[in-house]
Batch of 2 targets.
Target 1
Amino acid sequence: MIGYVVEKGVSTFKLTKRITVLAAKVAFFLFLSLFLLGLWVNSTRVRDSESTDNRMNDAPSEEASSPQDATIATDNPPVEEKSTPRAMLPEEPSGEITNSIGMKLKLIPAGEFQMGSGLSAAELAKQFGRDASSFENEYPSHPVRITKPFYLGQHEVTVEQFRRFVSDRDYETEAESDGKGSYGFDLATGEVELNLNYTWLETGFQQGDDHPVVNVSWNDAVAFCSWLSRKENMEYRLPTEAEWEYSCSSNTTTLYQHGDNQDELALEGNVADRTLAEILLKSKVTMTGGIKTKDDYATTAPVGCFRMNEFGVCDMHGNVREWCQDWFGLYPNDSVVDPTGPKSGPVSGPIRVFRGSGWHGFAMGSRSAARFGSSPDNRSNSIGFRVLRSSIK
Ligand SMILES: [Ca+2]
Ligand SMILES: [Ca+2]
């Protein structure tokens, strides 16, 4: 009985166990089926999602011309990249750039130099046969630090470049607008004449489009810079006197960028030379100064005819004199950083600086340290300008 019961109990136990095992298998199968079904549904959703994203991302490039797709693209913009927009990146300084009017500009590095004459006024007076007082405004020689690189026009502003400004702005130079005209030069007579008919378009001598513009006042030059600044959304201006001398001397301490021999100016600057002297022999005028060598130009030369200096700029010593930004003032006694000159003109009258010599200037005035000044509304057939552009926008 016990055995039966036991047997029966065993039998009952075995039956119960089989049912339990079977139920477990069914449950496991159902669980596995549900699990696999779940995986499949989730996978399908992911695929649908990826497919939709691809369509959204592809739409602008594939159907950019479709207004409808353009709207879709706008409503569902692609994920924004975290990179900085290109326009916001700082501009990489380049050794040379060409601007929107074809003007080449050279990158002038930051640095230090000794501004003013390195020779005493007595030594200069002896060398050039002048009174020492002719050089007194070049002292004291003082250290100047230029802290930022800048772009400087490789050449003086040309007639063609100035014409673009005049045409675009419908601009009238001061020589045209104030009824006084400017200065012309007649090679046949050797005479310089102030005449209403003389303007930047008429100088009395032949000028091509690639010659430096002259008969422009300081005010005209500043107006040109303002026009170019607005046109390119960059800062253009006249160089300060310190920036000009730093660029002209270009790491040299001699009178000229090539050395101290004035007759070698013929290699790197158009000044009053034997070419002009020989032509004037036929006129009533006799030229008593000027270099003994020939630079082959009696009046203005096309810009860039002469060799460039160490900074890559041309015609700093000659061709035309160049307006600078500063009011004319006395030099400081101590070292200065990025000087901009006096805040106003001197007591003797408002005078703006111009630097370098020109086609009828003598070697004395071609020196890197030589200084000149004139009223900002003055104009001359030997004064032009070049521009400076900040290196970073
Ligand atoms: Ca010359
Ligand atoms: Ca010049």
Target 2
Amino acid sequence: MRFRAKILALSVVTAIMAYSWRDTFVAESLRGAKVLVTGASTGIGEQMAYHYASFGAQIIITARRENVLKKVAEKCLELGAQKALYVPGDMSNTTDPEKVVKFAVEALGGLDYLVLNHIGPSPFAMWDGDVEHVRWLMQVNFLSYLQMTSSALPHLEKTGGSIVVVSSMLGKMCTPFVGPYTATKFSLSGFFGTLQHELAMQRKNVTVTICVLGLIDTQSAMDKIKGYTSMKAYPATDAALHIIKAGATRQRESFYPLYTYFGSLFRDWFPFLRDLFIQNSYNYEP
Ligand SMILES: NC(=O)c1ccc[n+]([C@@H]2O[C@H](COP(=O)([O-])OP(=O)(O)OC[C@H]3O[C@@H](n4cnc5c(N)ncnc54)[C@H](OP(=O)(O)O)[C@@H]3O)[C@@H](O)[C@H]2O)c1
């Protein structure tokens, strides 16, 4: 009898989870959508640009390298984007975030999605005490996100738009070799988690989606972890599509791949075993 009750409870929980995780995304909702994607010259940002393009969105892409952006924008037009423009910007420069948003709003006549994805390069190594690098990375990976959000919010309020923040499992759980990067991702979780509450309490029709990603097979990530770990990396194009769907369906927090959800859920249950597992999953000789 007890066994049956347990099976029943498990089935109910599974059914609720399957219902809440069902795919409610409607591709048509992105046709003509006005989208700004940052860090779109390579990696996940580039893949997001291609997906938005194939859904018929109007896109502005930004990063530092103009020649690369030009090629990505051309491919977006081939894939079906209603509009695809690019604007070079360096997010370590404190005036560029506002300039980029201004360009996007003027070129598109408004904004539906602000997709914050860019990151500055940071070494995969034990922290060497370099505080200046952390300060610089905070500007690129964190403060520029806030500057763009601040500039875009009035426009997003007009359209009932969305802010999509690309974060990481490393914004939820501490691991070695990534101190400065992790600091910026934890900051994003804290700030944008607060903003979610405040927008809801002010009854503003703007949503914030925080995407928690695991290891993704972009060139920069693969180069960094080479020799340190043999962890499986997931495809950038799938991660990009997951982020777009999460934003379009106005989810609060979204996880890709699924292990990041369970990792976040069970993070603090067995801290000793967790830390042992993390430290032993890297190749390192002091
Ligand atoms: N790949 C992973 O394993 C992984 C895991 C978890 C989370 N994520 C998150 O996913 C997002 C994308 O990661 P990714 O692996 O696709 O990164 P990536 O391939 O290294 O791309 C980074 C992008 O940011 C741009 N960028 C770099 N410095 C910049 C600056 N100072 N100003 C403006 N743009 C700058 C780069 O273009 P330019 O060089 O042309 O400027 C590039 O377009 C990040 O938020 C990352 O934290 C990635």
